[in-house]
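ugh ok fine here u go
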Amino acid sequence: MSLKIAILGFGLTGRLTALTLAKEHQLSVFEQDDEHASNSAGSVAAAMLAPLAESVLCEQDLALQGLNSIIRWQQILSELDDAVYFQQTGSLVVAHQQDKGDLQSFVSRLKPLESYQAQALVGTQIADLEPELAGRFHQGVYLPCEGQLDNQAFYSASFKKLTLQGVQFNFGCKVE
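structure:
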């Protein structure tokens, strides 16, 4: 049974919700911004998928959900008509010698996520991962499970896909 559903906001959450619901329901999206959602945090964020790094600030189960979201992102992006850059090659966290204590504190608060563990690195290993950092940093940690996507391309591709699916958009509408 197809329902008529209104979605308030077309930032990241609104787009993800619309992509899920548009397959089976009639949607109307109301957004106070334009279709680019230029004022949305999701349109200007770094688009880092960093569940291990963020685990220092959250509970284990939330960090695991973040790890699972990386798999979900791959599924979401595969359903779009336009390619959106996505990678899962990990994150490199480096620190200058005077910040060694901060790096050690960060590492001590990381929660292991399934088989993903942080890997301590020294200068040559850092240079192997990021040649432009050669000789500049002598200590770091590699977080192998992390990724990144092009959020601007996702915003554009999701709008295009939803438009083709017949979603009704109402931009410049502040709804309370």
